[in-house]
TrEMBL record:
It catalyses: 6-phospho-D-gluconate + NADP(+) = D-ribulose 5-phosphate + CO2 + NADPH. Its EC number is 1.1.1.44. This is 6-phosphogluconate dehydrogenase, decarboxylating. It comes from Blautia hominis. Keywords: Gluconate utilization, NADP, Oxidoreductase, Pentose shunt.
Length: 475
């Protein structure tokens, strides 16, 4: 049988994308390394447009030129293993897509290697998990712009739709799509951490019950914070436990894993010299969460603040406190996105990708985990000013920052005095204060560097670099 596209790897994501394509009328060839997986998919999800193949040769022969394949296998070595098997079977002009969470540098390397043979390689970020893949993900394709036109009808058909537009758009050459997906995940880490800190504040400083938390988050989801993450959070507080009395959330261990895309974002930001401190803080928060044993032991010996005695720590009414938390969260969220888009901007210059930030925000509006009302405002900001250097400087966001930063400071001080860890919100305030030109102490650091290493220093009142013979007390 003839097919329009081949999917290689039929685990949860590959299978869901294959069925999504089949629903949209494309004839899809499905192949998986282990035959049993293919059989299970065909048995459990039979579809007239999904055709199983048990060898790559047959899968390749089922298509007309230019042929199109999408790998949905585990990132890392499995991708290279599939390429090594597939490459000899492909011809010039064929298209090979990697839809997994591959590291963008790997995608750049693979793109270059396959281009030698005239094969168009695409690194495509797919966000939204299993449900997104099955019914409409946000899709970030990177690769050859001409060749993109061949796969665009399939990718845009299966993507989520926001106000009728597909959440799929060409990002740029080689690793651009995977890079955008990586930063998307980094922002997702920061966003989730900010919501977790808001929860801790409301619960431990505000004395909110699960019922009240569910109500409060539902209310937030009607306003400017409306988003997938706030929506599911509201629902989580209402979920009954499967085994015991009470709500499930209170029976879940206080330790969360990570797969690595947040860490990649953080490492990459250090390489680029861009401050994404909130994403890094979110990664570190998960690392700290994993130290359960040490935390349990330390709890017995390290004293908390005196204000932790008693139940409620905030002097204000619950509703007033919730408003402060909502406004502080909104300000911090703006800073997190500003950091993420700053990293994209530097990468765009560094790798020559010419990323369109307004378009990136637009394709995040549906299908993905960070989908939010707020992204419309980001698109508007970058459309209004394509040269915008930092999201915070856009008129709309500047106004919000100026209005909400007092709330951020107020909940931060309340949280710190109550002993509630708020690493991401603290970073938001620190970034804001440094960015708005407050002294950051680098004059003293220059002096120290010149003192111990003769690294020289610069002056405020004259050009050039200077060295001082630091005299006293340094022996
Ligand atoms: P997994 O990441 O669990 O990978 C399993 C698939 O990889 C199976 O089809 C497996 O075949 C295949 N595979 C492996 Br492992 N080694 C192989 C090799 N050497 N040659 C050929 N095939 C090999 O699947 P997933 O969770 O569906 O995710 C697929 C990709 O999508 C990953 O990169 C993931 O990070 C990304 N992603 C996942 C999500 C999500 O929510 N799960 C969301 C967004 C992106 P086998 O059956 O023979 O072992």
């Amino acid at each position: 049988q003839k097919t329009d596209i081949g999917i290689i790897g039929l685990a949860v994501m590959g299978r869901s994308l294959a069925l999504n394509m089949a629903d949209h009328g494309f004839k899809v060839g499905g192949y998986n390394r282990s035959k049993e997986v293919t059989d299970t998919v065909m048995r459990e999800h039979p579809h007239k447009n999904l055709i199983p193949f048990y060898t790559l040769e047959e899968l390749v022969e089922s298509q007309e030129h230019p042929r199109k394949f999408m790998m949905m296998v585990k990132a890392g070595n499995p991708v290279d293993a599939v390429i090594a098997q597939l490459e000899p079977l492909l011809d010039e002009g064929d298209i090979l897509i990697d839809g997994g969470n591959s590291f963008f540098e790997d995608t750049r390397r693979r793109t270059e290697a396959l281009a030698q043979k005239g094969i168009h390689y695409f690194g495509v970020g797919v966000s939204g998990g299993e449900k997104g893949a099955r019914f409409g993900p946000s899709i970030m394709p990177g690769g050859n712009e001409q060749a993109y036109k061949t796969v665009a009808p399939i990718l845009e058909a299966i993507a989520a739709k926001a106000q009728g537009e597909p959440c799929c758009a060409y990002m740029g050459p080689d690793g651009a799509g995977h890079y955008v997906k990586m930063v998307h995940n980094g922002i997702e880490y920061a966003d989730m951490q900010l919501i977790a800190e808001s929860y801790l504040l409301l619960k431990y400083a505000g004395g909110f019950t699960n019922e009240e938390l569910a109500d409060e988050f539902s209310k937030w989801n009607q306003g400017e914070l409306k988003s997938f993450l706030i929506g599911i959070t509201a629902g989580i507080f209402s979920e009954a436990d499967d085994f015991e009395e009470g709500r499930l959330v209170d029976h879940i261990v206080d330790s969360a894993g990570q797969k690595g895309t947040g860490r990649w974002t953080s490492l990459e930001s250090l390489k680029q010299g861009v401050n994404v401190s909130m994403i890094t803080a979110a990664c570190n928060a998960r690392i700290m969460s994993n130290r359960l044993e040490e935390r349990t032991a330390a709890k017995k010996v390290i004293k908390g603040p005196k204000t932790m005695e008693g139940t409620r720590k905030t002097p204000v009414q619950k509703e007033t406190f919730a408003d402060l938390v909502r406004e502080g969260l909104y300000a911090a969220k703006i800073v997190a996105y500003a950091q993420g888009f700053d990293l994209l901007s530097h990468a765009s210059t560094e790798y020559g990708w010419d990323l369109d930030f307004g378009r990136i925000a637009a394709i995040f509006r549906a299908g993905c985990i960070i989908q939010a009302e707020f992204l419309n405002d980001i698109t508007r900001a970058f459309e209004k000013n394509t040269k915008l250097t930092n999201l915070i400087l856009d008129g709309f966001f500047l106004d919000k920052i100026n209005k909400n930063q007092e709330s951020l400071r107020s909940i931060l001080s309340c949280g710190i005095l109550s002993g509630i860890p708020m690493p991401a919100m603290s970073q938001a305030a620190a970034y804001l204060d440094a960015f708005r030109g407050m002294p950051v102490g680098a004059n003293l650091i220059q002096a120290q560097r010149d003192c111990f290493g003769a690294h020289t220093y610069e002056r405020v009142d004259r050009q050039g670099t200077f060295h001082h013979e630091w005299g006293q007390g340094y022996e």
